[in-house]
Amino acid sequence: MDANQIRSLRPELRKFLQRFDECFGRSDTRGHLSVYVEGQLSDLPRKSCEPIADAQGVPPRTLQQFLSLLAWDHGLMKTKLQRLVAEEHASVHSIGLIDETACPKKGEKTPGVQRQWCGATGKQDNCLVTVHLGYAVDDFHCLIDSELFLPESWSNDRPRCQRAAIPDDMLHRPKTDIALELYDRARSNGISFAWLTFDEGYGKSPAFLDALRTRGQNFVAEVPVTCTGWIEKPRLTTRRRKRSGRPAKQPRLVQGSPRFRAVREMLEQEPPLRDQPWRAWRVKDGAKGPMVWEVKHVWFYPRGADGLPQEGAHLIVARSVLEPTTIKFFVAHAPREATPGVLLKVAFSRWQVERCFEDEKTELGFDHFEGRSYVGLMRHQTITALVLQRYLSIVPLAFG
């Protein structure tokens, strides 16, 4: 966006940013927010602190301190953003989107950076990874929360963490645990999700799926071909195996019960799935025409973290019409009457969180952060999410 476009939007921009005045104790600190946001919306090729400051005529150190050192409450900013989304975009069709993204970095001082899988480059690379929660309703989508994935190498090196201003109580933990924290925080701030969806990196964790079931959350999870369970629910017992001794405290499978199978095996060997004809479903209309997948659908009992059958769920097998060798498996925790068409629409909504990442990286400088502070990184990502949420709809020129 050029200077004239930003100038014309400045009154609307200031009015919007005033909603977050409470996050700042000082007016001069508050003023840096509009400088930073205008820089993100500009047509600068690089949108880190130094080029933004140079373009706005302020000392670069001023913006660097705004992100990393000055006292203001970015947690409250995130809370207010989520409440704003809940107020303006609440819907019985809302979908929560869990995903992660990587930003390639040089050096070793950016918080959380190490050689790990980097989706941006498609290989093991030096990068930082953050886990995100998105929100989508129809054509609207935005990111509402994020957290750094802290590798074990960082977690075990507390002096290194202290140099990057990483809190002492922040430790390495699975990405699924981070996702649950983001979900719980959004719910506490009034966000309601009719559905949640995520890829097999999260769907492969029985404990994560169990946690969502416990919370009463409907979800459609892509799962790996090794996901196991039963089409016919096996019987359980708490009777002891021998005539003497105490009764078993935990249920177990009745002896002789059918063994669990991987979903890939089910597709090839279980008659209810193997013999079921493929049914074509039009998932959505894309830029290149309608997206059509062929589907098989059965009721299914996933194998939980304790090795026992969980409550019944939908198992959806989807095969691409254009590339029949591409087959995806989804497990959906939803009412039994939910149709495959509805479940597929949720499952294939993940493009919206990918679009959020693309827009934030190509338009707002999401991956241009060059600081060495965890606080600065989180503030940068929170402000970027705030800008994307507001300007996707009112600044179409910026997001083509």
Explain this structure to me?
Strands 1, 2, 3, 4, 5, 6, 7, 10, 11, 12, 13 and 14 form a 12-stranded mixed β-sheet that branches. The chain has a two-stranded antiparallel ribbon with strand order 8-9. Helix content is 39%, strand content 24%. The chain has 16 helices and 14 strands. The protein has a domain at 222-333. The protein has helices at 3-17, 27-41, 49-56, 60-68, 74-89, 152-155, 158-163, 175-188, 200-203, 206-214, 263-269, 271-274, 340-347, 351-363, 374-394, 396-399; strands spanning 95-104, 114-118, 123-137, 140-148, 195-198, 219-223, 228-230, 236-237, 252-253, 261-262, 279-286, 289-302, 313-320, 327-333. Helix 3 packs across helix 4 and helix 5 runs parallel beside helix 15. The radius of gyration is 24 Å and the shape is globular. It is of the alpha+beta class and 400 residues long.
Write the layout of secondary structure elements.
Elements lengths: L2 H15 L9 H15 L7 H8 L3 H9 L5 H16 L5 E10 L9 E5 L4 E15 L2 E9 L3 H4 L2 H6 L11 H14 L6 E4 L1 H4 L2 H9 L4 E5 L4 E3 L5 E2 L14 E2 L7 E2 H7 L1 H4 L4 E8 L2 E14 L10 E8 L6 E7 L6 H8 L3 H13 L10 H21 L1 H4 L1
Parallel strand pairs: 1-5, 5-6
Antiparallel strand pairs: 1-3, 2-3, 3-4, 6-14, 7-10, 7-12, 8-9, 11-12, 12-13, 13-14
Helix pairs in contact: 1-2, 2-3, 3-4, 4-15, 5-15
